[in-house]
């Protein structure tokens, strides 16, 4: 238990699982309950699941740390959220959901205050609190996963924009008339540097005459992890493909560096596991394209908290609000 007796629960609404963690005031995870996301995509079933986890974690706290209390519940969700109303407008993980008032629904079944933000913002808050961004005032977190998300922290606070949508770093244009992106635009950073699009680019490349051990894998089954493993094993095409994603990321980073002049740009998300093949190329590319005075002081590094960043950030949200 941290230096004060407050703790909070962070919940991460994912497509497969809904982990909920009890987190102390130092950001340490005391216990996690990992339940499956209810398959029938009914909001009520998900609310029951989350309530159940909250109750279990609260029991654990009361039993093992008498005198300590839960300050609130922080909820992280992917997709388009209305933070003012506390609704999930749409979410890629919860296909049939439209304008679900998740905060009000949870308030109706729980006596704790409920807070919500998108998963990328919460990852930024988590990394800023106790991860790679600790001690910095201004950081930008880029989450590389199936897509590319982002969170911007200015003067120690998350920047949400005028309508709660700021930080969509994956959808800045880096190639004019480039690859079509899921958002409807062409040439977005996500369409070049995300895990999904890196796989697509590799499959396209393999149609040419290149030599690669990736040819042993059925293109239908090829994953970003395969490309990473093959790069580690010395496959030049795999290395080149990841370096290329890094260079595109570097173009995005140069733009962000010039706009924000932050202390640090932190690269997280599942695809950052391949960071050793992505981040150095990103740094070289960003150096060429951005202001020298900014780049000299800018820290560009891998995130520290891994998959826990979002849940720790969600708990932090409930502790500081
Ligand atoms: Zn886009």
Characterization of this structure:
The chain has 10 helices and 12 strands. It is an alpha/beta fold. The strands form 3 sheets. The protein has a 5-stranded mixed beta sheet with strand order 3-2-1-4-7. Strands 10-9-8-11-12 form a 5-stranded mixed beta sheet, with helices on both faces. The longest helix has 25 residues. The radius of gyration is 20 Å and the shape is globular. The site of zinc ion has 6 residues, from loops.
Number of discrete helical segments:
10
- Which percent range fits the helix content? 25-40%
Tell me about the biggest sheet? 5 strands, mixed
The overall pLDDT, averaged over residues, is 94
Shape: globular
Descriptive labels:
10 helices; 321 residues; five-stranded mixed β-sheet; binds zinc ion
List the helices and strands and how they pair.
Layout: E1 6-12, E2 17-24, E3 29-36, H1 43-64, E4 69-77, E5 80-82, E6 87-90, H2 102-109, E7 114-118, H3 119-130, E8 139-144, E9 148-154, E10 157-158, H4 190-193, H5 195-206, H6 224-232, H7 236-260, E11 264-268, H8 275-289, H9 292-297, E12 299-302, H10 309-320
Parallel strand pairs: 1-4, 4-7, 8-11, 11-12
Antiparallel strand pairs: 1-2, 2-3, 5-6, 8-9, 9-10
Helix pairs in contact: 1-2, 3-10, 6-7, 7-8
Zinc ion binds next to loops.
Question: What's this model, at a glance?
Answer:
The chain is an alpha/beta fold and 321 residues long. It is built from 10 helices and 12 strands.
